[in-house]
Structure formats: structure tokens, C-alpha cells
Amino acid sequence: MPMTSPVARARERRANALVAALWWTGAVGIAFFIAQGGLTTSTPVDYLYSLGRMAGIIAAVLVMNQVLLISRVPWIERVLGHDRAAATHSLMGKVAFIAMLVHAALILIMTAHYDGRSVLATIPALWDFGWYMVAAQAALGFFTLVVVTSLLIVRRRWRYETWHGVHLFVYIAIALVVPHQFIEGSTFRGKGPAWYFWVLLYVVTFGSWLVYRVGRPLVAARRYGLVVSEVTANPDGSTSVVMTGAGIERLRAKPGQFFLWRFLAPGWWLQAHPFSLSRGPDHTLRITVGASGDFSRSLAQLPVGTRVLAEGPLGVFTSDVRTGTGVVYVAGGIGVTPLRALLDEPHEGSVDIVLRSHAQEASPLRDEVHELAARHGARVHEFYGPRGFGWSTVAEPTTLAALVPGVSERDVYICGPVAWADAVAADALAAGVPAHAIHRERFGWS
Q1: In whole angstroms, how large is the CA radius of gyration of the chain?
Q2: Position 164 confidence tier, pLDDT thresholds 50, 70, 90
Q3: Which structural domain, as residue segments, surrounds residue 48?
Q4: Domain count across the chain
Q5: Do residues 191 and 55 both lie within one domain?
Q6: Is the pLDDT of residue 148 over 70?
Q7: Which of 198, 214, 288, 443 is most exposed, with the fewest beta carbons within 10 Å of its own?
Q8: What's the rounded Cα separation, in Å, for the pair 267 and 278?
């Protein structure tokens, strides 16, 4: 088994340090709270009230970090990559919601205790404090809606468009919860150090979001003038869309990366979707989209000449992260798109390509993959039919170790449905491939 490369170790250290820093920001918020007398109490039971306030501080910090992680800040994308940023975002959301519930419950219980009321009678009584408390309660309801609809068992039953629309309520929830923090929270009165800490946190977080989620796509749209120049319905049911513009090479996009695409035409402009480049970028950008939902199916009717807003390039699923002596590309269905783009680059060492789909005629970009494989002297392994144990098929069960001799010395790139990709990654680890040499691009909602 090859040793972890210095580059891989350094990259992992940077990623771990960044994630740790984001988590420990909550401790900074707690430190300011304590420094300003937040733990000063008259009776032991008062500590429960202080604990509730600290839970609220942790929740607020983690929600801000969630927004920062999805702000497409370039240095975060480079250090963490899209997958880890999304996974950290999701985990922080769960912890933040638990902290919100603890905060709300303890503050409610202790307020009822201080006022000599029942808990149920205290809920409407909190409205007497002012509109900001009503807004805070509404915010908790919106956060609950977002968290519940983010659960895997719910997401699987929803269209992406519906889920994404509901998920936007988190921004409304944040806007509703901020006033009670600054107006009611004694930590923020008097504009002491804690006040400036929170102002800085909000400015950096939402400033980054505005710059990179709103400003940069608008600037890019004006600078490059991206428009749809070609729409092709492919035999496998997918649709390829080619975009042209002025000076596209200045985007510095790389094979394996993706953009968030928004097509400015009636019926499409309200939604932005992540799609990988399906060939190496040159003076054009091409995506290939499987017919998996209402939006993706409708792209075959996208008018040529449609203007395009693009956020990106995003992701670290590129050749820059290779550490081995060769490469194995493993694609599930439409997950072939970033791997097809990577095949446009020069390769050193052995190349194996694994295509997995339910039928040969439904295998996207198959002819292009075979053409490029011949150019690189690569071997193509194809598996079609129902999935068996692991990642291959019932008819042809196999493992990467059996399929690719010396796979432990190579980088393995995996792209496809999440559960299937998990099985491929587990098989690669079992075959002796180091974790740092397994690269993934998840095709899911997380």
C-alpha cells in the first residue's frame, strides 16, 4: 500500500484545521458570554437559564457557519472541496437545531419558573416582550420545517425543486431570529466586545454570501456573456447543453468541476442546479444532464440563445488531487459526466474505466468514453443490469481488486448515486486503496 503523500497530508491538515476552527467559533461566543458575566447567578437553578442562553449562542454560531460553508467562498472550496463542505454544513445544521431546541426549552421553562406561570401559559406571554420574540418563535418553526424536510426519508420522496424551495426558508428564519438576539440578549447590550464579535460574524458570513452567491455570478454573466449555443437530445435519454461566451478560458475551469447553472428563460430562471462539465472546457462549456426530474427532462426544450448565470467553477474532483501511479474511473449512470471530462486531459500510468448502468442503451456518453479510452490505451469495463451485492450486477458480481490488478497503487475516482458510490468506495478501501486516493463527487442533495 502506498504511503500517504506529503501533498495529501498537507491538504488533510488544512481541511481538518478549517473544520475545527468553524466548530470552535462557538467556544469563542461562549467565552464572550462568560466574560460579560453570563454565569453570574443568584441561585443554583439560575445556571439552567445560563445554559439555555449558551445553547442559543452555539446554535447561532453554527447557523452562521452553515451559511458560510455554502457561500461558494473560493478558499473554502479549495480547502474542503464541495463534498466535505456540504457534509460539514449538514452536520452543523443538525447540531444547531438540537441547540435551538435546548435553548428554547430551557428559556421557556426558566421564564415560567421566574414568572410563576405554567409552561403553556408562558408561550403566549413571551409575546409581551415585543415583536422580536414573536419573530423568534416563527423562526424556530421555519428551522423545524427545513430540518424535517432535510431528513433522508423525506428527501427521497420529494422532487429536488420542491426540497430546494423549502430549504430557502432558512434565510427567512435567520432574518427573523437576529433581532431578538441583539435586542433581548443582555450579552449584546452596551456594544461591548461580544457585540462586535457578533457583528463581525454576521458581516463576514452574509458579506461572503452576497459576494460569491449573488455578486460573482452577475459579474461573470456580464463579463463572459454565457449563452446556450447548442442543445442535443442524446440516445440514452440525457440532454447535452453547450454554452459559449467571451473569454471562457478566464474562468479557469478544470475537467471534473461543476457549476451551478441558472438558465434565464421562462420556466427555467427560478431554479439553479449543479451540473458537472461533461467535457474539458475550451472556448465552450458543455454539460450533460440525465432525465431524472422535471427540470432535467425539460432541458431538451431549452431555447438556443438563452442567457446563462453560472456560479463556479466549484469542486476539487480534478486531476490535481492524484497521488498514485495510475487511475481508475468508476461511473454510475449520469455520474460519468465529470469522468468523461477528465478523460480529455493527458494521463500517465494505467487507466481503467468502469461504466455501470441499468442497460447499455441507457449508458450516457458511452461512445465518447470508448473513443477517449482508445486514445489513452485504457481498458473499459461495462456492467449492465440489476445491482447485486456491492456495486456491480447480479449477473456479473465482481470487485475492484479482481477487476483491476494493482488497484491499490492507483487513484480511484467515483461518481454516481450516493448509496452506489458508497459501495464502490468501501470496495476500494477493502482492495487496499488509501482513503486519500479515493475521490468522489456525490450526486445527491446534501
Answers
A1: 25
A2: low
A3: 6-211
A4: 3
A5: yes
A6: yes
A7: 214
A8: 24
Q: Is the dihedral of CA 341, 344, 345, 347 positive or negative?
A: positive
Rounded to 5°, angle at Cα 403 from 402 and 405? 75
Enter the C-alpha cell of residue 65: 457557519
Across the range 193-199, mean pLDDT stands at 83
| Half-sphere CA count of 86, side-chain side, radius 13 A | 15
Q: Do 305 and 227 meet the contact criterion of CB atoms below 8 Å apart?
A: yes
> Average pLDDT, whole number, for the chain?
86
pLDDT at 149: 74
240, part of any domain: yes
Looking at the fold, whether 270 and 336 belong to one and the same domain comes out as no
What is the grid cell recorded at 401?
A: 481488486
Q: Give the SS3 label for residue 252.
A: coil
Please state the rounded mean pLDDT for residues 153-171: 66
Q: Which of 269, 248, 409, 387 is nearest to 313 (CA)?
A: 248
Question: Which residues touch 414 (CB under 8 Å, ≥6 apart)?
Answer: 330, 335, 421, 424, 425, 428, 438, 439, 440, 441
Residue 109 and residue 198 share a domain: yes
Q: Is the pLDDT of residue 399 over 70?
A: yes
Q: What is the mean pLDDT of residues 247-276?
A: 89
Across 347-362, average pLDDT: 92
Does one domain contain both 67 and 123?
yes
Q: Let me know whether 70 and 207 are in one domain.
A: yes
DSSP string, 138-176: HHHHHHHHHHHHHSHHHHTTS-HHHHHHHHTHHHHHHHH
Using omega within 30 degrees of 0 as the cis cutoff, is the peptide bond preceding 124 cis? no
Place of cell 479482481: 402
